Structures are given as structure tokens and as C-alpha cells.
Amino acid sequence: MLELRINGFGGQGSVTLAHMLAQAALVNGEHGQALPFFGVERRGAPVRAAVRISPTTIYAHSQCELPDYVVVMSEKLTHAAINEGINDPGTVIVNAPHAVSVKNHATWQVDADAIAREAGLFSADGPFINVPLFGAVCRVLNIPQDIMEQTILNKWPGSKGEINLQAAGKAYHIVRQISK
Q1: Residue 29 CB contacts under 8 Å (≥ 6 apart), including other chains
Q2: Confidence band of 41 (pLDDT split at 50, 70, 90)
Q3: How far is 75 from 102, CA to CA, in rounded Å?
């Protein structure tokens, strides 16, 4: 079973990203579970969500304490996300405009902010980075691009889906591994 935690700020779409990854697992013929964590968080406060993906039934329903993957939605949260716990050896996927290496962990980088801005994906709080990050995470997890695309079109049919497809597709192709 694969466990993944998403660390972000309120309003960045951490929970939506978790649900999309769980849905992609289902579309891919696996079991998926999204685990949003709701506390007293508010927009702009650190938040987290988790995902489990498994070829067999998932019986666990607790939060992921030592995930195999950590998605960091803001480079500012990298240190805190790692200190929160990650499996050894784990993989970190960071949204940053430049290479960010995390000691002792395979690290991938994508500039989801730039991709979202370029695609015109905005909210009142800034760019919607969860869709580009969805594309990047799918690539890192070896989720086929057609499964990623089908998941997006199931959630956003029509022209909104096409815009999201472009952003996720770009991230899928440009996410890069920084270190092993």
C-alpha cells in the first residue's frame, strides 16, 4: 500500500488534490482513499491531507504517520513537512520555481505556481496549484497520463476540463527529479 501526505496552506487545494489522486487510483483499477485533516485551520494556515492507494482493499482509516511520499504545496513548508514524518527512504515532491533538494530523500520539483498562472487558473487567493501538482504527482507515481486526463475530465467536463488538462499535462511532462 502506498501512503502519501500533502502539506499545504489553507486555500491551495490540498483536499481537492487528495480526492483527485484517490479518484485516479479508482479509475486505474486500484483502491484509493482520501483522508482530509480538518482542525481549526483557516485560509493561509498550514493544512494537510493524505492519500492511500492499494491494489487490494484498504482497511486502515487513520492518518498517514510515515508516508512513502510527501507533496509540499509551498516551498516554505518543506522543512516542517519532512519533520512531520516520512518513510525512509521516502520521496518528496516540491512546488518551487527552482531545485529544492531534501537530504536523504528522493526529491522531485515542479513550478506549479508558474504553470497555473500561465493556464489562467486563479482564485481570489492566488493560482490554483492543485491541478498542476496532480499532473506532477501522477507522473512520479507512474499513473498513466490517460488515467490522469480521464480523472480531470470526470471532475471538470467541458472547457474548464480542457484548461485543467493543459496545466496538468504540462506538469506531468516537466516535473523533474532533483536527487535520489
Answers
A1: none
A2: low
A3: 11
Torsion angle of alpha carbons 55, 178, 167, 18, nearest 10°? Answer: 40
C-alpha cell at 26: 479508482
Structural domains in the chain plus CATH codes: 2-179 (3.40.920.10)
pLDDT reading at 44 higher than 90: no
Helix (H) or strand (E) holding 16, with range, is helix 14-27
End-to-end CA distance of the chain: 21
Question: How far apart, in Å, are the Cα atoms of 40 and each of 27, 46, 70, 145?
Answer: 33, 10, 22, 36
Q: What percent of the chain has pLDDT over 90?
A: 75
Q: Are 71 and 3 in contact (CB under 8 A)?
A: no
**Digit-coded pLDDT (tens) for 127-172:** 889 999 999 999 999 999 999 999 999 999 988 889 999 999 999 9
Q: Residue count of the chain, please give it.
A: 180
Which pairing describes strands 69-72 and 91-95: parallel, antiparallel, or unpaired? parallel
Distance (Å) of CA 118 to CA 16, 65, 73, 142: 20, 35, 17, 25
